[in-house]
Amino acid sequence: MEAEDGSFPADSSDNLSQRGSVASSATLSRAQDVLVYLFGDSAVHLTVEGLGSITVHELGRSVRDALHIPESVQDAFAFWLCSPLLELQLKARHQPYKLCRQWQDLLYRFTEASEEDSSQDEPCLQYRRNVFYPKSKELQMEDEGVLRLLYEEARSNILTGRYPCDPEHWMGLGALSIAIDEGTSLDSQQFTAAVREKKLSSFLPAHVLMGSGGLLSTLRGKASRHAELEQNLLEEYRKVMASAGSAPEPTQLLHQYLSTCHALPYYGCAFFSGEIDKPAQGILHRGRRKAVNIGICLEGVYVMDVKEKHVLLGLRFSELSWDHSYPEEEGDPHILWLEFDGEEDGTPVNKLLKIYSKEAELMSGFIEFCVELKSASEGGAAAETDGEVSLSQQPTGPDGSSKNGRGGRRGRLQRQASVVCSRVHTLNTISYVDNGKEIKRLKPKRAASFFARQASTPAYSAVQVTESLEQG
After folding, report:
1. CA-to-CA distance for 449 and 323, rounded, in angstroms?
2. Is the pLDDT of residue 109 over 80?
């Protein structure tokens, strides 16, 4: 992800090999080929001069011309250097070639990859959504080419499980994908032929197709499960046909797809890799860690279970404080700390979540930048925006009404069936804090936050230990 100050390590050696999608040459001043990859298995082929010194800003003009992207929406996209190990959004002043040469240094600084994995990793230069672009502006776009670029990226994130969503969402989005790719006039036979030609994996998330219950049961039930998914997909497709009318414009369907994705609070996030502690289990209370994805956008922070494909914690910036810590000794982890409101047996407390990641520094800087950017861009509208409760934070009573109005404490997050809702009860958090130390019990008093880093007008107050502290 883009560092808040853009401070990447210096190019430590002129002997580092050129990497990624930038073609190598002994003389960088000559015209050379560059591949800029897009979502949807396509790429833009450019021939550029002065490859060694060309900036993202200069390269952007060539890509926009090739893709016929209007100047009015140029800020919707950005250049990224991406590999399975690390993703970085580049700034206008960055020089992609030089960063490719520094890739192993970046992997050493921000990942836990082994020396062997780092040496074999190669980044590609990718043109994709700018994480700082407000999603509200997307639905104002009418250019089909631009909408398709956004659609392909959103679909990829749905299919890979990066955007967790519920069955009604992924089934509806799968039907929309078929309508966008194949049209809205397919009969049942044509629909089945189209789906089987491209395979269900082109329309539904991979983890949905795998099912659950172990390998043996998966193999036994694969055929019947796929047949059921095909039938459900056909029913959803018919609903799309009915709602879209005869011969809908492609932009109508693309808007519908993106609008559905916008309901997911982590749409448009930058994603980072990390681990959190599992709750201690067994007689010896041995704790392990689970892999998580951390999504950060202009709205907040979302911690997602990599394996289970659901949200563990979702917080707006006004609901948290944060900081990061460097290793004190060799072998200690980098940690991103998230502090937020919680309850223990009905008593309001602070909760601290530790996220282990060498990207902690990047995440902390990115959160800080998003808070500043959001504050500057929204101005007087901030109060109205903060009044909206995202899908992942809206606690409801038995009657479906929210018990939490703005100005009061956020209600306790309940266990939800939806993958979008937080699962605070599954987290191994530090619930009581005294100058950063875990204690057993306290009589809480609402006061200032443990961390200094927070939004300027947080919607919560942190617990502070008083002289009447009880320890048991």
Report:
1. 12
2. yes
Question: What pLDDT score was predicted for residue 252?
Answer: 94
b (16+ CB within 10 A) / e for 169-184 = bbbbbbbbbbbbebeb
Burial of residue 217, with CB atoms counted within 10 A of its CB: 0-12 exposed, 13-18 middle, 19 or more buried = exposed
Per residue, the 3-state secondary structure of the chain, as one string, reads: CCCCCCCCCCCCCCCCCCCCCECCCCCCCCCEEEEEEECCCEEEEEEECCCCCCCHHHHHHHHHHHHCCCHHHHHHEEEEEECCCCEEECCCCCCHHHHHHCHHHHHHHHCCCCHHHHHHCCCEEEEEECCCCCHHHHHHCCCHHHHHHHHHHHHHHHHCCCCCCCHHHHHHHHHHHHHHHHCCCCCHHHHHHHHHHHCHHHCCCHHHHHCCCCHHHHHHHHHHHHHHHHHHHHHHHHHHHHHHCCCCCHHHHHHHHHHHHHCCCCCCCEEEEEEEECCCECCCCECCEEEEEEEECCCEEEEEECCCCEEEEEEEHHHEEEEEECCCCCCCCCEEEEEEEEEECCEEEEEEEEEECCCHHHHHHHHHHHHHHHHHHHHHHHHHHHCCCCCCCCCECCCCCECCCCCCCCCCCCCCCCCCCCCHHHCCCECCEECCEECCCCCCEEECCCCCEECCCCCCCEEECCCCCCCC
Handedness of CA 279, 281, 284, 289 (dihedral sign): negative
Q: Can you tell me the distance from the alpha carbon of 128 to that of 202, in angstroms, rounded to the nearest whole number?
A: 20
Give me the long-range contacts of 274-279 (CB less than 8 A, separation at least 24). Answer: 274/336, 274/355, 274/356, 274/357, 274/359, 274/360, 275/355, 275/356, 275/357, 276/303, 276/312, 276/353, 276/354, 276/355, 276/356, 276/427, 276/428, 277/354, 277/428, 278/428, 279/426, 279/427, 279/428
Q: What is the mean pLDDT of the chain?
A: 79
- Which stretch of 9-18, 196-205, 301-310, 346-355 has the lowest confidence by average pLDDT? 9-18
Nearest to residue 463, comparing CAs of 377, 343, 314? 343
